[in-house]
Amino acid sequence: MKKECIFIDVFTDTPYAGNQLAVFPNGSGLSAEQMQNLAKEINYPETTFVFDADKSKADFAVRIFTVSRELPFAGHPTLGTAYSIWELFSIWTDKKNVLRLETKVGVIPLQKQEDAIWMTQNEPEFFDQHTDRQQIADLFDLSADEITEELPVEEVSTGNRMLIIPVKTLDAMQRAQGNVGNLRKFFDKTLIGPYLFSLETVNPGAKVHTRFFAPHIGILEDPATGSAAGPLTAYLLKHNVFGNEFEIVNEQGIEMGRPSKILMRGRKKDNKYTVQIGGKCAYAGRGEFEI
C-alpha cells in the first residue's frame, strides 16, 4: 500500500520558514500504529491524516500525531490541513468558504479571509494559577525575577491545556532554553506544555513575542504553536492586556531561524470569549510512502 503526502510550512508565506507539517490526504486503511510510525519517520513537529467524516457534522476528520504520540488538537496542523484541502488536494468538490474539520476536541470551523486562513477555537477554560515563580523559571534556566509579577502564570485551554507564562524582557525570552528534566517532571498528559510570551518584540509590527518548549512530547522547541496562541489570546482578553477586542500579530520561531507570523483575534463580551487564530501557508514539496 502506498500513501501520498505533501509538505507545507504553516504561519508563513515563505517556504522553509514557519512550522513544518506533513499531510496525508487519505488516511483510510492506516492503523494508529502505522500513523505513529509515519510521523516518527518524517520527524516533523506534527503529521496529519485526513479521513471522511459525517457530513452533517464536518467536512473531514483529521488525526494529528507528533513523533511520540497522538494529540487531540493542535493549531498549526489544523490550519495547514485546511490549506492543503483548499489549495492542494482534489478531495473536496464543494470547496466552500468555510471548512469544518473534526478533531478529538470537537469540530473546528476554518474560514478563508483574503489571503489568510482563520480557525475559531473553543470557548476558553481557565484553570490553576502558579505562584512559585522560581519553579517556573527553573523550567527554562531563567531567574525568578525574569517572570512578570504583574500578570499570573496560568493554565488556559481552548482545546489543549497550556501554561501561559509572562516574561519581562525580550532578552530573557531569547536566553530561555527548555530544561528537559524539569519539563518532564512538571508536565503531564493533562497539561500539554508552556507558552512563554513577552510584550517586547523583535519586529515593530508584532505585539507579542512567544516560545514553546515541549521535549516531553517529542518537540524540543516549536516554531509556531496555534493551539497555544489560542489560550494566550483568551489570557490577554481575561487580563485586559489589549482591551476587550483586538487583532494582533504574534511572532514566534525567531530563535530557531524559522520566523512565524501568527494572527490572533480576540473578543470578550458579556463574559463570552471569541478566540480566532489565523495565518498563511507555503507549499514545500510532496512524497510517497510504502506502507
Automatic annotation (TrEMBL):
Task: Report the domain of life of the source organism.
Answer: Bacteria
MF annotations from Gene Ontology: isomerase activity
Name any one Pfam family assigned in the record.
PhzC-PhzF
Transmembrane region(s): none
Q: Which GO terms describe its cellular component?
A: cytoplasm
Active-site annotation? E46
**What is the designated name of this protein?**
Phenazine biosynthesis protein
